[in-house]
Each structure stands twice: as C-alpha cells, then as structure tokens.
Write a structure and sequence with these properties.
The complex is a heterodimer of chains A (about 575) and B (about 775). Chain A is α+β, with helices and mostly antiparallel strands. Helix content of chain A is about 40%, strand content about 15%. Chain A is globular and about 80 Å long. In chain B, strand 6 and strand 7 form a beta hairpin. The chains are: A alpha+beta (about 575), B alpha+beta (about 775). Chain A: Pfam families: Myotub-related, PH-GRAM_MTMR6-like.
Chain lengths: ~575, ~775
C-alpha cells in the first residue's frame, strides 16, 4: 500500500490547533506519509511536526455541521486538539491520521526514509558490540569467561544476540541443553561482573513443568559461576503463586533439591498490562489539573505507579546488595526473562557500576541489557497509556526503568554525567523516532531488516559533541562508589519533569539548570585562568630575580611561587 | 557454614513486608554520609558551642572519671545526668545507641561516645514528652519536637525516667513569659551586640517604600497608645478621607477593635487592607464601618467596586453570626463584591499537622500507606487553599486593579497568611532576604499574629496552638520549588526561621503583638533573630537568585500536582530519606570558590603587571631597583576596614540593604577576628615585594577545594548530617564543620583583603607568618 492511498486530505487550510502552553494557532494542516504538520507560515509562530508513529489515540468530537475537533493523544503524553470546521474534511483527516498512525509495516516507518543532516562521526550501530563491551572482562578474566558465538545464526535462542558471554568452563553442548530447558531458549548469560568478583546473570524461567523436571546441564552452567563452596541467589521477579502456576504451563522455577547452592527469593514486580494500566491512570490523573488535592493524591496512590517504582528499586537494591555486600552471585529471572528481569539487572548496574552513570555507559547499558537482550520495543511500545486497544503485549517497562534511574538521579544529582532530560529523550525515542535504534524486537530481526545499513542509529546522532553538550550535568563529579538510593516512600517523588511537562510549565526549572551550568563553567574558567596567571607570574618572578629587581628567597622560606604553581 | 545460618539470612534478606526498613538499614552501615546523628542543633542554631566539648566529654568518659561529673557541659550546668540510656532509632531498633543523657537548664543532650553521636534538644523545642509503657530494658520516654524531631530514650531506672519527664515538662513550657530562654540567653560566640537587628526594620519606612503616606492614605496616631486596638501596631495607615469618627466607629464594630487598615499598596493604587470580622450578627449594621469601607474603595479612584474577602468557609462565617459576629452584608455595603474562600480554622490545621506527622512516623510504610496518609491529613489541601486565596487577592489587585479588604475571624491567622503571601506575589522586594524579613515584621509581628500562643511558648490553652506560621513557610517553600531563581534565600533560611520562631532563643517572636513586645522591653533584654541571621547571611543565599529572572508578578501554578510534600521540613531528622548530594550547598560552595578565585586573579594580575612594569623600566633605564615597595595597597586596606566599620554603624542606624547584610558579617569579622592586623599591615608598608611574599600569597589561596562528597565527619569528629552545612577553608580547601571554621581572616593572596573563612591551623599559620614579616 502506498502512502498516497492512505492520505485522504494532504492539505487543509483554516485548522485551529490547541496545544500545551501556547495560544491556539490558526494554520494549514499538511499530512505527509510520516508527519502531521501544522504551519502558520509565520516566522514567529512555532510549527507542529508530529510523527504519525507518536500518535497513541485519536478521539473524534463531532459537532454536527460545524465539523469537529480531533483530539490527538501522543505517546509522549502530549495532547493536541485540531478544530476543523468542514465536516467532510474533518472525517477524512480523522481517518487519515488513524490509518497512518496504525501502520504496522516496519519498513514503511520514518527511520527508513530519514536522511541525517549531520556527518556521522561514529557509527552507533557498531559502537556497543558485545565483543567490545565485554572485551576487558574477557581478557582480564580469561580463565573464567568467554564470548560464545553458539547463537550466531540465532538458532539456540531467537531473541539473544549472536555473541553472549558464558563461563569458560562450560562447553557449547551444555549451553544448548540449558537453552532447551529455559523458556524461549533464554539460557543464563552474564549480565554484569562486579568488582567483588560476584556476577549478575539473567535468563528466563526453567521449563520444569508440573513434574519438576531437572536439567543437569542447566545446573552445571549456573553452578560454574560459583566458586567452590560458594552459594548464590536466584531472584524470581514473580510472586511465589505466579511461579507455582507457571508450572502447569510447562514453566516453573529452580527446585531447591537440584540447586542446593542457590537460595531462591521472590521479589514480585508487576508486569505487562498491570504496568500499562498503572501508567494510564497516572497520566490521566496528571492531566487533570483542576481536580482537588484529595482527588489527585488518591488517584496518584491508586495508580500504583509510585509503588511499582518502590518495588523495582527495592528489588534492584537487593540484587546489588547481594553482589556488593555479600559477594554472592545472582541469577535474575521472571517468566520470559524480558521485562522485569531486564529492569532489575539494568537498574542494579546503575547502582553498582559508576560507568553506567555516564552518557556512554547508559547508552551501552540500554544497548546491552535492553536492545541486545531482545526486549521487543516495537511490540511493547506499539500502544501506550492513551490507547484503548491495550493488550498484554504492551508495557511501559522501559519507562519504569528510566523513572527509577531518575529517582536515583534525584538522590545523587552529582553522580550522573547526564541530566534527567537525557532520560526523557531516551523515553521519547524509544516510542517513536527518526532513528532505527529501537526498531526490531531482537538482534535477529534487526539483522533481517538491515537496520544498520538502512537507518541511522540514535547513538550516531547523540554522540556528537554539540548534541551531547545539552544533556550534560553541570554538577557531575564522578563517583566511583556504589550508590544506595533510599526507597522510603518520602524519598520517591513523581517525576514531574516528565509526567507534568505538558500541564505545568517547566521553564523556570530549565532556566535554573542553565544558571547552574553557567556558574559551573565560570568556576572552571576561573580555575584555568588562575593557573595560567600563576605560571606567568612564576616566569616573571624568575626573570625579576635574575634582573635583581626582586629580593630572592630567604633561607628556610616557604616554597617559591614556582613550586606552588606547579603543585 | 556460619554465614548460612538462619540469622544470616534474616539479616541479609528481609521479609517482603519490611521492604522499607531494611534498605535504609543497610544503607546506613555501608554509606555513612549521613550517619545516625539526627540532630545537633547546637551546631547551627547559634547556641554557644565550642569544638572541644565533644572531645572534652569523650576524654572525660574515657578517663573514667565518672564519679566526679563535670559541672559544665558546653558551659551549661548539668542538672541531671543519666547513664546507660538507649536512644531508639525507628530504623535501627536492633542496634540502639547507648550513651549518657544530660539535662541542663536549656538543653537535653544525649552523648553516645562510641557512635560519636551528640543529640541536642532545646527544651523550648519540645512539643510533647510522653512516657511509654515500661519495657524489659527500662522506661521509654518519647520526645516530640516542634522542629519535627522525634526521639525515644529508654532510661534504665523508672525513677530517673520520671524525674527527667517531670523536669522536661516544666522546662519545655514555662509558666511565665519571663522564664523564656531569650531572657537568659546571654553568652554568645557570635559577638553580636544586643541591639543588632532590632532596628533593621521599622514599619514607617516600609510604608514609605510603598509611597505611603500619600494623597489617598495617611498615618493615624489614634492607636499610638494602643487604645484603639491593642493588637495592632502603633502606626496605622488609613484612607485620608476617613474621619476620626469613622475610624472609631469602625473599630468598635470590628472584633477585637481590628478595623480595616492598609497592609499593602500596589503601584496601581489598588490596596490590600486587613481587618477582623464585623460584629454584624444577623442584621446589625454600622454606618461608620460602611463609610470606612467606602473610604477604602475611594482610595483607588478608577474603581467602581472592591472585593471583601472572607477567608473562612461560608459555614464558619454563618456560625459566627449566632455569636454576634459574622460578615459584611452586600446590601448594606455599597459597591463591594463579597467572597468566601474557605481556609479552615486553627483547630482543623492543628489536627491536620498531627495527622501529617503520624504519616511521617509510620513504621515501614508502603507507598499506599504514605500517600493515603498524606491525603487524609489534608495538609496539602490546606496549603493549596492558602495559596489559592492569596493568589485570588493578588490577581484582584494586579489584573483587575481592584482593592481588597481581607478578614477571617480575628484577622490574625488566615488574614495574616494571605495578606503576606498576596503582597509577596505582587512585589519582588518581598522575595529578597531583607524584604521577606520586612514582610514578616509587618504582616506577622506588627499586626499581631499571636506567636507565643500559636507556638505554645508558655503554658496555656493547648487549643490556641496551631501551625499557622509553619503553613506560611510551607507555602513559601512551594513557591521556591516552582520558581528556583525567584527567591534570594534558600531552604536553610526557611528552616532556620521556622526553628527560631519556636526556639525562644531570640526575642523577635516572643509575645502576641507589638504592645506585648514593648511591654517586655525585648529589644533591650534579648537578642534579635535578624541580627543573628545577618551574621550568617552567606548560608542563606540562593545561588540561583537573579533579580532579572524575577518576574514583577509571581504567577504561581496551584494545580494539585504542583503542591508537594516538604520532606526537608517534616522528615528533616530522618537522615536516611534525603538526597545524598545536596545541590544547593554544592552550588554555594562553587560560588564561594569562584569568588575566591576572582579575588586571587585580581591580585595575580596586579603582581604580573607590576613586575612587567618593573622589568620594562629596568630595561629602559638600565637601572637596578634593589627592592620595590608595594604601591598603595596598605592605604586601600585601611580604607576598606574603615568603610566596613562605617557600614556597620550605618546598618545600625538606618536599617540595612541586602548587600550590606552580607557585608556586615565580613566587616564584623575583620574588626574582631584579627586584632593584630593593623600592626601587621602597617609594618608591611615599609616592606618590599619579595619572593617570600609572593610565595606566601600564592600559598594562601587554594585553587581546588576538596569535594564535599563522602565526607562523613569533620576533623573534630563531629559527624555531618543531611542539613549541617559543610564549609571549606578558603586557604587549604579542606572541609570543616561550622564549629571548626569560626575564624575569618584576609588572605595574602586576595586583593580585596576581605576576611574570609579559614580553618584554625590556617588561621594560626597566617598570623604566624604575619608576625615573622614584621621586623
């Protein structure tokens, strides 16, 4: 199908648009294959460029012969209203927007048509390959870990990348057997190795079934990461009941008898539809600024979003505690090992690993723990909180991850190289983007779609100095420690920078950050200037002493200025 | 294996239900940035302290001289000392800290020698003392403070516990106002003279600032002996057209004689006036009062009507009619628009705060428990209603250019809140430190907000206690959150203010009205909080403040989503729940650092230019200077010191501007801090520029300051908690607590020769090298 067939009204004059924080605009609506554009053709007035893919729901408010209003609800939570006075055109525009926003064919999406206007300094598609990401680990711990290409044709596990890190002592046959024992073939792989030597692994649930089957290869695989006599933890992100019922469908959990070296703990985190419903309630409550305080608080509470944050942080802290405090290794899984599992393993790394708090580190983390780990972004993010067609396949798990990072950021505002606006940018691009990074459900699919050749990577765009600059945290002071967030309810707060940005003007806060940036820059400049002047003074001093102008240092005097300047 | 015992598991892996308790625990033992010290009010409230006290007590304890107890603790005589007391921490019940409890005349002090903990509780801050049921380890005594600290001490002997309990009950709320702390508070390490601060503000100059008296408004002296209304200030500003008969009549028709008077005059001639409810009953009317409001209306010639805002809920106002009070009848008063705005009364507010505190003190609350508790306390709803009412008034004045008459019942609680907030929305001056203090002087102190009764300073009716001022401070905090660059002051300023309204350490907030304060001769007998705060101004500055970024009219967003729970206030002493890297303090340190570098750069530039000049001259003239005197520096310094002295005198005479307030500290320190300075400087006059001197100059300014992160305690082993400010020594760049950075001196490496904070070793070093240089 061609775009032309779908676009019933390519252009329409006299459309009045209502959007957040701006006066209504009377302009011309243009609909292209990928964008909905509203322009007044005036210099001073901003234009709207909206990707159809950003549209989550379209609501028609027909007002008889006067046409009607089209309420466009976006995945970035924005709500835009278009008033169209011609009833016929109104219906056609509505249908067009609905059709274009629900296009399912990935190759028709904008990233395949987008051509970058900037030179690509570093190709984001190859920037975070497992080989380079894990190269240090594999060389320094060469006797313990190796990169395995057993999945190079994606036959062992369809959703895993071609290269995974596995214990050196385990051969490929064992891995294949273990993969057969785990749902979707997602056998235990290395996620992170902590400084203490303890490791974080993730997988999907074991297929024990009702009869509690065992798989010796699986046992051998995970036991091999434990030192002799050591024990580890298996964190199950489901409730015990849920894990139990999974048995009847062929899934299950590690039976204690067969895994005597492992202690299993249930740390339930809500998933899938529960999460999306929660988000929907939250966003709805956030958008209603006329409600009473009591109503707002009760809706905030009943949305449960903040509870999810608390649960998630709690679980991630527990994992981090096991790794850092107990020096014990941890295996995390839920059922598929996709949503809650990745949430916990990635968050634990933000807590433990200072690298993950840098821009590049976070990009690498998203790449490793979400994209390469096979988190199906296009499926999960197909619908968001406004959509009426929400199903089990849709979930804002990645947003929950970003929110949790934001909460930690709020408690440690100087330990992150990026500002929270960086997280918001990731949120937006994960739902709709001109870049191909979040297309494809897993590496196999991405390879099949030839994304690397046909689209631009988000990282290629971001990692240019001029773009990166705007996301940098002026207060950043590298912190090599593990950072333990507080999970007390009073320590967690609604991420207003994201959830309230279309209803509460964030300009004062943004201005404040600009001021902070300039204060810090000024301080840095002064520091440089002082050093330079000290050096200059030291040179002059030497010259002056030689010329006999200056009284030379007296005996036993404090160090000369030269020495001080050098110090 | 030992590690795998059940006990170990319990320790490591909590039950799911205890999710909150455990992480906080675990963070404490591994990340001791803010250790368990929940309060050390001695540090930052200006209570006389000396850094050696902790060490003294500690060494005394170590020497085992317990049989001969010290007579003094921090210069405070000890009334009672109880040993082996356990201080319970909500999050760490398994490992309570054990130490000694000292009861002095002014403070309850708990010292835990092993945990290096010192907890100071000012008796005046105690809101309630409660004996909890006896346990196996002793008698628990729960103390709740007006600063929202809550602690439980378990005292081994019931008899001791009872004694402490009875004493505290007496000390926390004296019967006589003359027994309050401020009348005994004399010794001060601050060295501020007693009158400092009392004369910073006066009502007449504040009205002059609003260009009053004017054609429309004039000063009346009818109340100069407090005969018209004893809870109003002496000087009242009323419409010029209102005759004495009208004023007297109106005053008689208003509850407590609180007639409508000017609170704030906007530049568009619209005014905010305040009064109490009329004694209207069901049908009574008073022609003079009606005329009075008409006079108010006519002060704004362009307007055909004005608003009368009754801040109460309609039902409350109706109920008051039965007791002969009530509200204005639109039929009797010409051209008024009457509005009820629904702020609840002091009793509702009191129980709302109690519920809020209960919520904060919940043991291991879930997110739902907390949010539910927050909702049912109604606290945020009340904050919102106060902001809404204030914004309604500000809008009427600014957008509609209409005057507003505001009252509630007696016009000293809700009216005070909304008049002051309304003015603050309209006038950027009130968002500066000085202006904010002037606002409190005017609307709160002069117009008779009953601080002593509302704060429960002395024993009295507990039903009169209500967090009216706390709500006001909370509203201001909400605005600082919405507008980070609009207020000159920071959160610490608000907290300090709130603490001292309760502490009774200063006379500023004692009494219930201006007349009370004059009768008590507070300005002669006590210190002023404003004087103390002027001396600590650098701690209260908001580095983001910019006059350019401050809008004339502050338009708050009062959506419920924007009204937030103030963790820094109500959970202040829960050390685990706050951000671990306080942005504000880090920014303040950055600004100080920049300021030090700028000064240093100016000196470097001067030295470089000087040497360049000399070298050039030398080449030109082929002449050798054996040594060169430094030009003019000394005179400058002397001049500056004189300036500072003059400035200080000037401040005392005619009030003060924000800039001066900051300088006050500096001038003060340079006057007292370095008595030997002048001799040193004058000896320098004959001195010459030498390599030694250059080295000393460069060595005296640290280019890099130590990071504030991960510093758990000062060198004096005082632990840092969340709210204790960490200070840098400007010479060595190390980090110290407030007690250890009490020295100020000019640095040789600074051109301006202003006194800056240095640590004690650096101070000694500078003075030492100073004496060497003197011939």
């Amino acid at each position: 199908m061609e775009f032309a067939e779908l676009i019933l009204v390519p252009k329409l004059d006299g459309v009045i648009m209502h959007w957040p924080f701006q006066k209504p605009v009377d302009g011309t609506l243009c609909i292209t294959g990928h964008h909905l554009i509203l322009s007044t053709r005036k210099e001073s007035v901003e234009e709207l460029w909206l990707l159809h893919h950003n549209v989550d729901a379209v609501e028609r408010r027909i007002s008889g012969m006067q046409g009607g209003s089209l309420i466009i609800k976006c995945k970035d939570f924005r709500i835009i209203q278009l008033d169209i006075s011609n009833p016929d055109k109104f219906l056609k525009v509505a249908t067009t927007v609905e059709n274009l926003s629900s296009l399912d064919e990935p190759t028709k999406l904008y990233p395949f048509f987008y051509r970058p206007m900037f030179p690509i300094l570093e190709d984001g598609w190859t920037a975070f390959r497992p080989e380079t990401e894990y190269s240090q680990l594999v060389t320094s711990q060469a006797d313990e870990w190796r990169i395995s290409y057993i999945n190079k044709d994606f036959s062992v596990c369809a959703t895993y990348p071609s290269a995974v890190v596995v214990p050196k002592s385990v051969d490929d046959d064992t891995i294949i057997a273990a993969a057969n024992f785990r749902e979707g073939g997602r056998f235990p792989v290395l996620s992170y190795r902590h400084d203490t030597g303890s490791v974080l692994m993730r997988s999907s649930q074991p297929m024990t079934g009702p009869s509690s089957k065992r798989c010796k290869e699986d046992e051998r695989l995970i036991n091999s990461v434990l030192g002799p006599g050591k024990r580890g933890y298996i964190i199950d992100t489901r409730t015990q009941t849920l894990a139990q019922t999974a048995k009847s469908r062929g899934g299950g959990f590690e039976v204690e008898m067969y895994y005597p070296q492992w202690r299993r703990i249930n740390k339930p985190i809500d998933r899938h539809q529960g999460l999306l419903d929660s988000l929907a309630k939250l966003v709805e409550a956030c958008n209603d600024t006329t409600a009473s305080t009591d109503k707002w608080l009760s809706r905030l509470e009943s949305s449960n979003w903040m509870s999810h944050i608390k649960d998630t942080l709690n679980c991630a802290c527990l994992v981090a505690q096991c790794l850092d405090q107990e020096g014990a290794s941890v295996l995390v899984h839920g059922s598929e090992g996709l949503d809650a599992t990745l949430l916990v393993t990635s968050l634990a790394q933000v807590i433990l690993n200072p690298d993950c708090r840098t821009v590049r580190g976070l990009e690498a983390l998203v790449e490793r723990e979400w994209l390469q780990a096979g988190y199906p972004f296009p499926i999960r993010h197909r619908k968001s909180c406004y959509s009426t067609g929400r199903t089990k396949a849709h979930a804002p798990t990645f947003l929950l991850f970003l929110d949790c990072v934001g909460q930690i950021h709020q408690q440690f505002p100087c330990s992150f190289e990026f500002r929270t606006s960086f997280l918001i940018m990731l949120f937006e691009h994960s739902y709709c983007s001109q870049f191909g990074t979040f297309l494809g459900t897993c590496e196999a699919e991405r390879a099949g779609m030839k994304l690397a050749e046909q689209t631009v990577s988000l990282w290629s765009y971001l990692n240019r100095p001029d773009i990166l600059q705007s996301f940098l945290n002026p207060m950043y002071d590298p912190n090599n420690r593990v950072i333990w967030p507080s999970v007390a309810p009073m320590s967690l707060s609604l991420w207003s920078e994201l959830f309230l940005r279309w209803v509460v003007d964030q300009t004062p806060q943004q201005k404040a950050w600009e001021t902070i940036t300039s204060l810090r820059e000024k301080d840095k400049e002064l520091r440089l200037k002082a050093t330079r002047l000290r050096r200059q003074l030291a040179d002059l001093e030497k010259e002056a002493v030689e010329a006999g102008i200056l009284v030379p240092a007296s005996a036993g005097a404090p160090p000369t200025s030269e020495a001080v300047a050098d110090a | 294996m030992n590690r795998w015992t059940a006990d170990f598991w319990r320790q490591v892996l909590p039950h799911d239900t205890q999710t909150f308790i455990v992480p906080v625990n675990m963070y404490r033992y591994q990340d001791l940035i803010s250790p368990d010290t929940s309060i050390s009010s001695g540090n930052d409230t200006g209570i006389p302290t000396s850094p050696s006290v902790y060490g003294r007590v500690r060494s005394w304890l170590l020497q085992g001289q317990c049989s001969a107890p010290p007579e003094l603790y921090h210069g405070l005589s000890i009334h009672k000392k109880v040993e082996n007391v356990r201080m319970l921490d909500r999050y760490n019940a398994r490992k309570p800290s054990i130490g000694t409890l000292y009861l002095t005349a002014t403070h309850l002090i708990f010292v835990d020698p092993d945990g290096k903990k010192e907890t100071w509780i000012l008796h005046m801050h105690i809101a309630s003392v409660e004996k909890l049921p006896l346990t196996t380890t002793g008698s628990p005594l729960q103390i709740r403070c007006k600063t929202f600290l809550s602690v439980t001490f378990v005292i081994p002997k019931e008899r001791d516990c009872h004694e402490v309990f009875v004493t505290l009950q007496q000390l926390a709320q004296p019967v006589h106002i003359e027994d309050l702390y401020c009348f005994h508070y004399t010794s001060s390490t601050e060295d501020i003279p007693k009158p400092a601060g009392w004369n910073f503000f006066d009502l007449q100059s504040e009205y002059q600032r609003m260009r009053v008296p004017s054609d429309q408004w004039s000063l009346t002296l009818l109340n100069k002996d407090y005969e018209l209304c004893d809870t109003y200030p002496r000087y009242l500003y009323v419409p010029s057209s209102a005759s004495t008969t009208v004023l007297l009549g109106s005053s008689r028709f208003r509850s407590k004689g609180r007639l409508p008077v000017l609170s704030y005059l906007h530049r568009n001639k619209a005014a905010i006036c305040r009064c109490s409810q009329p004694l209207s009953g069901f049908s009574a009317r008073c022609l003079e009062d009606e005329q009075m409001l008409n006079c108010v209306l006519r002060t704004n010639p362009d307007n055909s009507f004005m608003y009368v805002v009754d801040t109460r809920p309609r039902i409350n106002a109706m109920a008051n009619r039965a007791t002969g009070k009530g509200y204005e009848n639109e039929n009797f008063y010409e051209n008024i628009k009457f509005h009820f705005l629904g702020i609840e009364n002091i009793h509702v507010m009191r129980s709302s705060l109690a519920k809020l505190i209960e919520t904060c003190e919940l043991k291991s609350p879930s997110m739902s428990n907390f949010l539910g508790g927050l909702e049912s306390s109604g606290w945020l709803r009340h904050i919102k209603s106060i902001l809404e009412t204030s914004w309604f008034i500000a809008q009427a004045v600014d957008e509609k250019e209409t005057s507003v008459v505001v009252h509630c019942s007696d016009g000293w609680d809700r009216t005070t809140q909304v008049c002051s907030l309304g003015s603050l929305f309209l006038d950027p001056y009130y968002r500066t430190i000085q202006g904010f203090q002037a606002l409190i002087e005017k609307d709160w102190l002069a117009f008779g907000h009953k601080f002593s009764e509302r704060c429960g300073h002395v024993a009295g009716d507990p039903k009169e206690v209500s967090p009216v001022f706390t709500q006001f401070i909370d509203c201001i905090w909400q605005l600082t959150q919405q507008f980070p660059a609009t207020f000159q002051f920071n959160e610490r300023f608000l907290l300090t203010l709130h603490d001292h309204v309760q502490s009774c350490q200063f006379g500023t907030f004692i009494g219930n009205c201006e007349k009370d304060r004059i009768d008590l001769r507070l300005n002669e007998r006590t210190f002023s909080l404003w004087g103390y705060m002027a001396n600590h101004m650098n701690e209260y500055i908001n580095p983001l403040y910019s006059t350019l970024a401050t809008p004339d009219i502050l338009m708050p967003n009062i959506a419920p989503q924007n009204i937030k729970f103030w963790r820094g206030m109500y959970c202040r002493f829960e050390s685990g729940v706050h951000p671990r890297e306080p942005l504000g303090d880090l920014l303040l340190a950055t600004c100080d650092h920049s300021s030090s570098l700028e000064d240093h750069i100016r000196l470097l530039t001067k030295r470089i230019n000087f040497l360049k000049q000399q070298l050039a001259d030398c080449k030109d003239n082929k002449r050798n200077f054996p040594a060169v005197p430094i030009d003019g520096t000394i005179d400058n310094i002397k001049g500056m010191m004189l300036d500072n002295k003059y400035l200080y005198e000037k401040c005392r005479e005619d009030g003060i501007t924000p800039g001066n307030l900051v300088q006050l500290k500096i001038s003060h320190a340079s006057n007292n801090g370095l008595p030997g300075d002048s001799t040193k400087l004058s000896s320098n006059a004959a001195d010459v520029l030498s390599v030694d001197q250059l080295a000393a100059e460069l060595g005296s300014v640290a280019l890099d300051w130590k990071t504030l992160r991960n510093i758990r305690e000062c060198v004096c082993s005082t632990p840092f908690d969340h709210f204790s400010r960490k200070y840098h020594c400007w010479k060595c760049g190390e980090v110290f607590c407030t007690r250890c950075i009490d020295k100020h001196t000019p640095l040789p490496g600074h051109l301006s020769q202003r006194a800056v904070p240095v640590c004690r070793p650096c101070f000694r070093e500078i003075r030492h090298s100073g004496s060497i240089e003197s011939p």
